[in-house]
Design a protein that fits this description.
It comes from Candidatus Edwardsbacteria bacterium GWF2_54_11. Keywords: Membrane, Transmembrane, Transmembrane helix. By secondary structure, the chain is α/β, with parallel strands linked by helices. It folds into two domains: 140 residues, no CATH class; 226 residues, no CATH class. The chain contains five helices and 25 strands. Strands 10, 12, 13, 14, 15, 16, 18, 20, 22 and 24 form a ten-stranded parallel β-sheet that branches. Strands 2-3-1-4-8-9-25 form a seven-stranded mixed β-sheet. A hairpin with a 2-residue loop joins strand 2 and strand 3.
Length: 454
């Protein structure tokens, strides 16, 4: 009997020990479950915060892709093609309507989101104690002298010719290089915070034009024609005439030409180099001044060309269709939002049939693409445009015409100049007007995540 009682006692002790072990295991299991739930919740909040940061980055890129337009609050870029920029400019995008639009170098804009289901990748205006949680855009910079004030030489530019970022636009970085923007986007969900710093730049685009003045027909007339196929920056002043673009100016030892390995040549009263292209100019992106499938009759009062080479006659190279120049197919080009008012040309303007530019167009400064579809263009007034003139038919200039960009004429009869015409080829201007019209977005050159407030 005594042994039986001992056995029962041992069994009871073992049962209690088993229960204790099971309780410990259960507690450990519950701890792991709670811990895993906490970790999972934190990971979920962290992933959601990263998604919000990427959403903020997407809005900033979309708004940077819009062309400059005065008075449009959706646009956040300044007129960087106007020849100057504010290195200290900083744009804050808030979730609500900001109480002020500009304060010193700081610009405040409301998100483009609607009030329904707003993604919180920024803060309300007036609610943030510091700017670290507000979606912001600024130029990538390095304050070399530590004075807290940025100069143009202290922001970074993207040199497409060398495919690298450079501090300032110091030789050999071209003067028409685009600045690099930094987008700082922070997503917050609960205690989780993720901050992305994304560097973007205007993407490179090369408009497929073969010359400053490209004509299928003979180029004729007895007027004044000065055509320069050396590449000119987009900030070349209106109505600057060749050969004045060869004259060096302050900060531009190559005159109003993009920088090459050697000077672009000397302006002369005739053909500078009518046959041979120069390697340094080819590297700089220069094209022939005039290229025709026929002949250039240099018999006018003053008809000169400069370029790489100056003139190409009896060319066998194709004249690109306007959609090829713009980097798209014909259907896409045709279906773009073309306007029909050329007084003035702003953005995309298309007119059908024979067209006369005259009268109240005198003195206007145009910016964009003028396409004369299925007809001739006769310009009898003062026409100054930064962009592209594209004529499906023949072209006649009896007035005063100035073009920074290029002219393309498909007509087979003649390109006649009896007035005065100045053409300065500019690859950057052509790229800009196409990009403004088609919205090509931005090129992301780097992205990193930072832990601290940035």
């Amino acid at each position: 009997m005594k042994n039986l009682n001992n056995q029962k006692g041992i069994a009871l002790v073992l049962a209690l020990m088993v229960i204790l072990v099971l309780s410990v295991m259960d507690s450990g299991l519950m701890y792991n479950i709670v811990n895993e739930k906490t970790i999972t919740a934190n990971r979920m909040r962290s992933s959601q915060a990263l998604a919000l940061a990427k959403a903020g980055e997407a809005e900033a890129i979309a708004r940077l892709s819009l062309p400059y337009a005065s008075g449009n609050d959706t646009v956040i870029v300044e007129d960087i093609n106007g020849g100057s920029l504010n290195p200290n400019r900083r744009v804050y995008i808030t979730l609500n309507q900001p109480g002020t639009a500009v304060s010193g170098n700081n610009y405040y804009r409301k998100t483009v989101q609607t009030s329904t289901n707003t993604l919180n990748y920024s803060e309300n205006y007036g609610d943030f104690g510091d700017s670290s949680s507000v979606l912001q855009i600024r130029y990538k910079s390095h304050d070399t002298n530590g004075d807290g004030i940025l100069a143009s030489g202290e922001i970074y530019f993207y040199d497409y010719k060398r495919d690298m970022i450079t501090l300032g636009r110091v030789s050999p970085t071209p003067q028409d290089a685009y600045p690099v923007w930094e987008i700082i986007s922070t997503g917050q969900v609960g205690s989780a915070r993720r901050t992305l710093v994304t560097e973007v730049v205007v993407p490179r685009f090369t408009a497929r034009t073969r010359a400053g003045l490209s004509s299928k027909a003979p180029v004729t007339g007895n007027g004044n024609a000065d055509v320069c196929g050396h590449d000119h920056p987009a900030n070349t002043p209106y109505n600057l005439s060749p050969p004045n673009c060869f004259i060096p100016v302050s900060g531009q030892p190559f005159g109003w030409h993009v920088e090459a390995d050697e000077p672009h040549g000397l302006a002369a009263n005739g053909y500078l180099n009518p046959v041979v292209a120069r390697n340094s100019c080819t590297m700089a992106g220069c094209v022939p001044g005039i290229e025709t499938d026929s002949l250039f009759f240099n018999t006018g009062a003053n008809q000169k060309a400069w370029g790489n080479p100056d003139v190409v006659e009896k060319s066998t190279r194709p004249i690109y269709k306007i959609w090829d120049i713009m980097g798209m197919d014909s259907a896409t080009c045709t279906n773009l939002d073309w306007g029909n008012d050329m007084y003035p040309v702003r953005g995309l303007v298309r007119l059908d049939g024979n067209t006369m530019y005259a009268g109240h167009g005198s003195g206007l400064e145009h910016d964009g693409i003028l396409w004369i579809r299925g007809g001739d263009l006769h310009s009898s007034s003062n026409l100054a445009i930064k962009g592209l003139i594209y004529v499906d038919g023949n072209y006649q200039s009896t007035g005063t015409t100035w073009v920074l960009g290029g002219i393309v004429v498909l007509g087979e009869t003649e390109t006649s100049i009896t007035g005065s015409i100045d053409v300065l080829y500019s690859s950057q201007t052509l790229a800009r007007v196409v990009q403004n019209a088609t919205g090509v977005g931005m090129k992301v050159i780097s992205q990193r995540e930072v832990d601290q407030k940035y």
